[in-house]
Amino acid sequence: MKPIQIIVTFLMLAYASLNLKGQSTNDTVHITYKGKGVTVKPQGEESTTTVKFKDTFLKRDIIIKVAFQNLEDNAAIEDTARKTFKFMPTLPNKDGERKFIETKVLPNFDLGFVSTMNEASNSNAFDPKMNKSANINLGLIEQEMNLYKGRVLLSYGLSSNNYYLKYNNKQMLQKLDNNGYLTSQMDTVNNYDKNRLNIHYLTVPVLLEYHSKGDKFNIAAGVEFSFNGNTNLTTKGDRESLEFKRNEDVNIKINPTQMNAIVRVGYDHVALYARYSITDMYKSSAYALNANPHQHLFSVGVCLFGI
């Protein structure tokens, strides 16, 4: 349970022990929850009125029951008898309460380290330095389909997946040679303080999720379909004592589409993820025949806001 839910539950339980005294059947009870109020009038002896508030933030229905009870058995003084109005709010059990389709905006945020895994060796292959390269994935919108009692879900949506790659040697640049093949080149003219390759994708994730009772343990696994790939190079440094800072598009035949395998595992408020690119990082035409190292991006890190 999230901290805000714990606070709300505590306050609601505190209200549960509150008794309001009335002097006649004309007495009313005014209930306010998060700025929304309703006035309840007893419907008769031993009656109960149910009031429901919709909490969009917690995605819960807050149910409050107002009970009308005659505390005096003497009918002669019924009109002036003391009455008790008792709050009996209940927070619904989370299990099984998910709607069939639920939509979330900004559902999750991944922050991790990234590098590459190569199927073959190649002297021109660039391997990012993992402890300095980052993977940032921001979920933009997500829908969850309740497949089984709010425990098994199918989720899909749209996210922005970004790789920020730094290499061991800041002076080395990736270029295409005269044959259109990828090669590395030492820059002896410029002095770089920053040399970072940025790759940006729009991604459609499709995941199968399992949530344990109370959401203590969660796991999600599936695939991500990435498209609209854009590559640019961010550099900062100086040339003959003249400082420069550039952010320019580069064509080094990065694949504009990508398919990833993704898994997220969470316990309580802590969640981790691993992402692996099934497709090659570069187009097949980036290397000569039989020289392709078949590089695959992979990243590991933490998930914020949810799996």
Q: What would you say this structure looks like, in words?
A:
Strand 11 (172-176) and strand 12 form a beta hairpin. The chain is 5% helix and 56% strand. Residues 1-23 and 73-96 have low confidence and may be disordered. It has an 8-stranded antiparallel beta barrel. A 4-stranded antiparallel beta sheet has the order 1-6-5-4, with no helix packed on it. Strands 2-3 form a two-stranded antiparallel ribbon. The chain folds into 2 domains: 3-87, no CATH class; 101-304. The protein has one helix at residues 3-16; strands at 19-22, 29-33, 36-40, 48-55, 60-70, 83-87, 101-105, 109-118, 134-148, 152-166, 172-176, 182-186, 191-211, 217-239, 242-249, 258-267, 270-277, 295-304. It is mostly beta strands and 307 residues long.
Number of strands: 18
Structural class: mainly beta
Return the domain count. 2
Radius of gyration: 30 Å
First-residue to last-residue Cα separation: 15 Å
- Hey, roughly how much beta strand do the residues contain? over 45%
- Helix proportion of residues, in percent? under 10%
List unreliable stretches of 5+ residues.
1-23, 73-96
Summed over residues and divided by their number, the pLDDT gives a mean of 82
Give the helix tally. Answer: 1
